[in-house]
Amino acid sequence: MSSLPVSSIRALADLHPKPSNLRFQYGTAGFRTLGSTLESVMFRVGVLAGLRSKKLDGKTIGVMVTASHNPEADNGVKLVDPRGEMLEASWEGHATVLANAADTDAFIEAVENLVKTMKIDVSKPSRVVYARDTRPSGPQLIASLEDGFQAINVEARNAGVTTTPILHYLVRAINTKGTKDAYGEDSEEGYMNKLSSAFKKLIAGKPASPPLIVDCANGVGAQAAAELSAYLGETLPLILHNTATTAPGALNNACGADFVKTQQKPPPSLASHLKPGQRACSLDGDADRLMYYYLDERSQFRMLDGDKIAALVAAFIGDLVKAAGLDGQVRVGIVQTAYANGGSTKYLSERLPVRCVSTGVKHLHHAAEHYDIGVYFEANGHGTVLFSPETLTKFAEHQPSTPAQSTAVNHLVNLTQLINQTVGDALSDMLFVEVVLAHKSYSGFEWDSLYVDLPNRLVKVVVADRNIFKTTDAERRLVSPPGLQARIDELVGKYDSGRAFVRPSGTEDVVRVYAEARGKAQADELAFRVAGMVYDETGGDLAQRPVEFL
Ligand code: G16
């Protein structure tokens, strides 16, 4: 049996020393921090991805270099498992250990330990497909990642500059190629073809859609949206904005899904383009989140976030299941997080089973897999719909007894092609929303009227050490620091329809505070007061309390 190529690992690891003063953590969406500090992490992730592939008998693992909605100077890396889902949670710890080994010797020792404890047969082949977003730090970080691949002889396929969801798609397509579960052609064209053909079938016979404005966050989604637009042609005219992928400092700056969600307003760059009634949407920096919005007749901004998307699409799927005659045989369920607006949870739970899980796509994805059709969306616009393998078989074997049933089953089958089953995908979700709007003849107004959002506020607090904040109950309650939750509860009790929670971010060095209440001013006040409690807890100087409202 061959052994680890230690001398090759050593020679290349020496080129990427770990900064001695930094500690890295595989968090909500992989490693994420200032791009300039990440070279050693990238190299080590390259080695880890190779080992993960060997452990899984040479199946292809994905590596995405992106910091998504974060500022342009940040970067990050996340690993994708063979079915296109996020890295198995138990390996996140291994990733963190490898990333923090102090020097080359310690790194080699950590790799040897991992090989031993996980019983990895290093003679197996290892295969990886990797990609990056448009961040300026990307090329250099990719070079470090490639050194990691080289160190342990990974067969690596470069998918270039592309979106996170396309990379996830590629991983699943590569691993299922030639099998009965073949997911699609393993290329970007394969992805575009799959989505656009399903979309065209689903809207056949519907009146032509008015153009949709798409804010591409000046990120990699601009490229993919332009390509998709060419495939869609007149079936869905897209007007792309914020496509300056090479303009320094432009990425996610005053634009993109996170800006819209947290500022609760449209990107200023769209101001002169948004007319009352005009539908628009924003992608984030790696095109895995989607926010819709429109201006009402009084030119007031109306946001259609992940919760509104969940309400729209879950009801549509539920109706199709009934119309297909599969009611009772196929269970549709919803997964949300604590950030879901109380209005949406009330609306959805009156119709379908709803579960709340911790923030992070991996948590939502796994919970959604427990349903026959699992709809999951984070309020921030990250989400998708999963169809279980048994459900796909039911669709294939179902004998419709009326033409209406037959049409409904066909729509469901086409939806399984339209919706990215691997991860939240802004472009796929956008097409799905457009299908539902076309079928229901809804404008933004009718969609928005499904339920009324409770006013809410999201605040970040910069603290000395966010790790002192520990949560339970799907991150809805704090267990540490001691006593803080009781004080929050007491305060929340004073607000009509009040709700608030505190959790440390897994992608930024901040603590997040969410609050909602009957009135806007009350929600703002509650968020601000809880944020103040959080800051005080860390012993800060009140006069310089660095609470930033988003
Ligand atoms: C990532 C995760 C999301 C999460 C978001 C914010 O999104 O994939 O599930 O909601 O970070 O996480 P946190 O509040 O822990 O910072 P993205 O789009 O940045 O990859």
Helix content: 40-55%
Number of domains: 4
Beta-strand content bin: 15-25%
- The secondary-structure class comes to alpha/beta
Give the overall form.
globular
Counted beta strands? 20
CATH class call of the largest domain = Alpha Beta
Active site: 68
EC number: 5.4.2.3
Enzyme class: isomerase
Protein name: Phosphoacetylglucosamine mutase
Structural description of this entry:
With 550 residues, the protein is an alpha/beta fold. The chain folds into 4 domains: 6-161, 3-Layer(aba) Sandwich (Alpha-D-Glucose-1,6-Bisphosphate, Chain A, domain 3); 189-303, 3-Layer(aba) Sandwich (Alpha-D-Glucose-1,6-Bisphosphate, Chain A, domain 3); 306-448, 3-Layer(aba) Sandwich (Alpha-D-Glucose-1,6-Bisphosphate, Chain A, domain 3), CATH 3.40.120; 456-549, TATA-Binding Protein (2-Layer Sandwich), CATH 3.30.310.50. The protein is built from 18 helices and 20 strands. Helix 1 packs antiparallel against helix 5 (138-151), helix 2 packs across helix 3 and helix 7 (188-203) runs antiparallel to helix 14 (403-418). The longest helix has 18 residues, at 306-323. Mean pLDDT is 95; it is low at 546-550. The site of 1,6-di-O-phosphono-alpha-D-glucopyranose has 18 residues, from loops. 1,6-di-O-phosphono-alpha-D-glucopyranose binds at residues 28-29, 68-69, 284, 288-289, 359-361, 378, 380, 382, 505-508, 512.
